[in-house]
Each structure stands twice: as C-alpha cells, then as structure tokens.
Design brief:
Rossmann fold; 38% helix; single chain; Arc Repressor Mutant, subunit A; five-stranded parallel beta sheet; alpha/beta; 360 residues; globular
C-alpha cells in the first residue's frame, strides 16, 4: 500500500505516546495537523469533530482493541468513510485479513509505516489556512524567532508587534484570526492590552491566547485567568508541539452560534453530569450555566471524569490525560485545583480508593 499524499489532518489512536509523537514529528513539518488519542473512546470522539483524512490505528489499545474501534467507526454514518490504517509491532499471518474484516482499509507493521512517515513529502505546495493570520504581540526577539520557526512551516501568516500600542493598532488594522499576547510587555502590559482588545468593538471577538512565564500552579495566574477570561493561555517556555496544538484548538473551534445541541453529530461531544457541562466542540466548561476557564491539565482530567460513570483510577488518569502530568502527586494537586476552579460548595469530585468519581 502507498501512504496517502497531500494530507491535511491525521488522527493517531495509540496508547503509546512515543508512537503518537513519532507521527507528529514526521507529518507536522509538512503542514499536517496531527491529533492523538490513547483510547478507543477518545479516538471516536475526536474523529467525529476533527474529521481526519486518515486514521492510524494501533492493533492493541488499553481496555479495547483496534478491531473494536474499526467496527464502531464503520457503524457511525458521520465518520464511517474515513480511511483507516491498522498497525502493529508484529505481524501474524492472519492479521491483515482480520483488520480488513473489522473495517480497516489496510494493515501495516509499525516498521513499515514508520518508513513511509519518515519519507513523507507533500506532492502539492502547502496552502495557507483561510483563517491563518496570527498577530504576535511579544517584545522578546528570541521568542519571536521561535514562534516564527514553529508556525511558518504550518502555513500561518504572521505579524509581529514589539509592544502593546503597536499591537493594538495592528489588531484593529488587520483583524487577525488569533492574537498571541505576552503578559509582560514594556510600557503598556499584556493585561492592559487585553482589556483594550475586549473593550473595542473592532477586536472584542478576536480569540486571544495569553503567553506567560508564571508557573501554572501560581495563584497569580489563576487570578488573571479568572478575571480576564482569555480564550486560552500557554505557559512559557513552551515546545513547538504544544504551541501548534493550542492554536489548532482555538482555530478549529466552530464559530460562535454553532450550537452543538442542535447538531446530531456534535451533540455527542457535549459531556454533562449534574451541574457541570463540557462542550468539546468549543472546549468550554459551564458550572450551573456559568462559564469556567480551566487550565489544560484540569480540562483534561475533567473530560476523563465526565466520560466515565464509574470511578477512574489515578493510573488511568495518567494514561489518558493527554497533559504533561507525570506522577501521582501531580494528579492529586491538579484534582484539588480543579475542585477549587469548579467553585461548588459540595465537592462534586469524590475520592474512591486510588481514584476519583465525578458525581456532578
């Protein structure tokens, strides 16, 4: 089989973070947006909204299998036409036939697909996304160079402003699809710039991704986020994959007014339990109807808890979290901060053995 050419979106369903990372490193420099999922359930959810050109699917998944995923995919009219390549570290004689019977379009060993990924080149020039103009308000030349190095190959059109006043003028003039805004700027700081952006009718609808060097667990940054309510924020220093993913998360969100509840395909991407509602089409969380901004780690853990009626072990939270939490202690601290951010008098997250259950 020849690997598909001129890809724009790829979904990798594999519980091995190393393989998901390999696919990203091979394809993202060619302008391909890569999303990953560690479980069958998450993979199906992402496929429904992301609509990838192809799905790369591991034969064995934690708590499930690639065959199960393929069968569920083919039953869903919204996504059953997406080509799927099932992969495995080893190849038994009957594996290819079993993969095709389950609904996959092809079967490869991981060595085979790795060779194709490493040699992948687009046959057509990368086209810039229609919504790809980004204004970067950042005074540090080193950070500017890094952002340029990461985002230019992704097809984004970039404009840089070295201080807040220049940035505000550029935002009103060019109406970018997204603004990357540093909090620490000379003269007018990022907080002041953000307030002006939100007060101006010309710029108040532009998504803003705040960049900050303050620690993710800082009470100061929590206060800023709660007060300012930006579209999202990212903690410095950040890596290229994290920056690409955060921007894709903002720009891939449906326009305001696209109500998931009225769309039968998007409806499955609204998770709800009692007083808590999470809309995965916009990555927004509501508690008793009130919007609540969550840092990425807290958002990831809440999504997992909402996806399971039963208690979820800390080990599973670590495996499925999709964040940079690396140990049990980090998960426990993040759960406590999630409880605080939800702001409910009666704690909706109950400790059950070596895990947690969301009661709503």
């Amino acid at each position: 089989m020849r690997f598909p050419t001129n890809l724009t979106r790829v979904l990798v369903v594999d519980d091995a973070a190393s393989f998901r990372g390999l696919v990203s490193r091979c394809l993202e420099p060619q302008g391909v947006v890569v999303k990953g999922a560690a479980t069958s359930e998450d993979g199906l959810s992402i496929a429904r909204i992301f609509k990838p050109d192809v799905i790369i699917l591991d034969w064995i998944l934690k708590g499930s299998s690639g065959e199960h995923f393929a069968r569920q995919l083919r039953k869903d009219a919204a996504i059953n036409s997406i080509p799927t390549i099932m992969v495995s570290s080893v190849k038994e004689e009957t594996d290819a036939a079993r993969a095709v019977r389950a609904g996959a379009n092809a079967f490869m060993t991981k060595d085979q697909i790795q060779g194709m990924l490493l040699s992948y080149k687009r046959q057509e020039p990368l086209r810039r996304p229609a919504r790809g103009r980004i204004l970067v308000i950042e005074d540090d030349e080193g950070n500017q160079d890094f952002i340029r190095h990461v985002l230019t190959p992704q097809g984004y059109e970039l404009e840089f402003a070295r201080d807040g006043r220049i940035g505000l003028h550029a935002a009103r003039r060019s109406r970018p699809a997204l603004i990357l805004l540093d909090l620490c700027l000379p003269g007018m700081n990022g907080v002041e710039v953000f307030k002006f952006l939100r007060e101006s009718p010309e710029t108040r609808q532009i998504p803003v991704l705040l960049m900050t060097a303050m620690a993710d667990n800082s009470r100061v940054i929590d206060s800023f986020i709660e007060t300012l309510r930006p579209t999202d924020y990212i903690h410095k220093p950040f890596g290229d994959e994290e920056l690409i993913a955060r921007i894709a998360r903002v720009l891939d969100a449906p326009p305001a007014g696209d109500d998931a509840g009225s769309n039968p395909i998007l409806k499955d991407l609204v998770l709800e339990r009692g007083r808590i509602r999470m809309d995965l089409t916009t990555n927004k969380v509501y508690v008793q109807g009130r919007p609540v901004h969550l840092a990425q780690r807290r958002f990831d853990l809440l999504r997992i808890l909402l996806s399971h009626q039963e208690a979820v072990s800390i080990e599973r939270l670590l495996a499925e979290g999709g964040s940079d939490a690396q140990d049990t202690g980090t998960v426990k601290k993040t759960i406590q901060r999630l409880r605080n951010a939800l702001g409910l008098a009666d704690d909706p997250i109950v400790t059950v053995g070596h895990g947690y259950k969301l009661v709503g």
